[in-house]
Amino acid sequence: MAPNLDRISSLLNLINEAARTLEAGYTTGDGYVPSLDETKAYPLDKQISAPEMKEAVQVLEGACAQLCATLARPNHTVVNALEPSCLRAALIFKIPDILQDQPAGMHVVDIGQRCGVDPSKLARILRLLCAKHCFREVHKDIFANNRLSVQLLASNPLHSLGLHMTGDTTAGATKLAETLADPYWGPSSVPVHSAWNKFTGQPMAMFDYWAQVSQNPDMHAHGERFGIGMIGWGTAVEAAVVVHAYPWNELGPGATVCDLGGGVGAMAIQLARAHPGLQLKLQDLPDRMVQAEKVVWPAECPEAMEQNRIEFRQIDFFIEPPIAGCDVYYLKNILHAFPTSQCLAILKGIRKSMKPGSRVLIHEYILQTADGSDQPADRQLTKAPSPLLSNYGEGRIRQYYLDVSLMVLVNSQERTLDEYIELGEKAGLRFMKVWEFGDMSGVEMCANEVYPVAARTK
């Protein structure tokens, strides 16, 4: 179905009309529209809303959400803004798969029979998701897939990501306040003092728990699901921007890139396809390396294996350095999962393996504060146009969601650029350049004593 441009214009008109109605309600007489920065109560705040203003707020919120859901990439919206408990039910019972061969829709009684769920309760769950523009209610109690819900098919990595986000993350978050209030755990940076630990009662860190395959075979599937989910996450946040925005071709033919902690190699696969001159080294825990070498790469990038452009080597990067002498050591979404002490262990291990001219590329979210203060030119990230918050507010909310999720799951954090630079300096690395890779960013570093020779100017 082709996009309905008239519908876009209609939504824009509704947004404009609703905003003007609300503006007029505030400015009638000698009134004014209060700034978000004000703390003093405004006269209208304590009054029952006039019917036209209440309606305008509802139209404004609904139209803005529908416009964003219509125009944003569907995986962006699915990852950002769905109610977790209802989304989890849809994922567990594979509702998108049930509806996949029913484009005209299926009655909820039939859906319930297929997945073994009471239809009246299932209808209420689906109706909430429809209000979020995920699925559509074609007629009363008849539901169909739409542009968002098809992102949740079991064959899509976003299905695995959704199970992780609505499972471990959401469950652990229920104990966040209690964890923060704990006089011992609250100020601790120890990984096992997380809200997830308090919820589950597990004495070990989440990733270590998943690694206990010999004691609990179910953990193998859990770890695999997380690895697949990270492929979905990378797609949703368009992490692949780094494949084209960073000058890999300037490294020269045969340059070696070590994707350290790269899981099954979602990013390395894209590098292999886009830059066949690179020699890639993928390093992670043993289970992920077996999954990568035996399952993922033969299906997704067999040509790299046939041409010996990829090497798989297991590693515990807390106790051993990565493959020596690589041109780039690439870490995507690694350091944010660990406290400062363990980040330093990883970076110091890399520093031992570097040769003259090697560099480290840390690919993470870089937290921006909302105060709008300027940074030195070489450290300044793009700021949003006024009057938006300088960090784009809701437009870049995902980095703050992820920051809190990391606190919940493993008691770690996203970091600011200054914090990454400080980490590097403590590990014997020097800051070279900050890159902007769409949603995420990159911090490029080199060994501090070779910086004057290897520094980039562009």
UniProtKB/TrEMBL annotation:
Q: Which residues form a coiled coil?
A: none
- Domain O-methyltransferase dimerisation positions: 82-154
Quote one Gene Ontology molecular function term: protein dimerization activity
Tell me the superkingdom of the source: Eukaryota
GO BP terms, alphabetized: methylation
Domain named O-methyltransferase C-terminal: residues: 251-429
Keyword terms, alphabetized:
Methyltransferase, S-adenosyl-L-methionine, Transferase
Q: Which Pfam families match?
A: Dimerisation, Methyltransf_2
Q: Which PANTHER family match?
A: O-METHYLTRANSFERASE CICE, PUTATIVE (AFU_ORTHOLOGUE AFUA_4G14580)-RELATED
Designated name of the protein: S-adenosyl-L-methionine-dependent methyltransferase
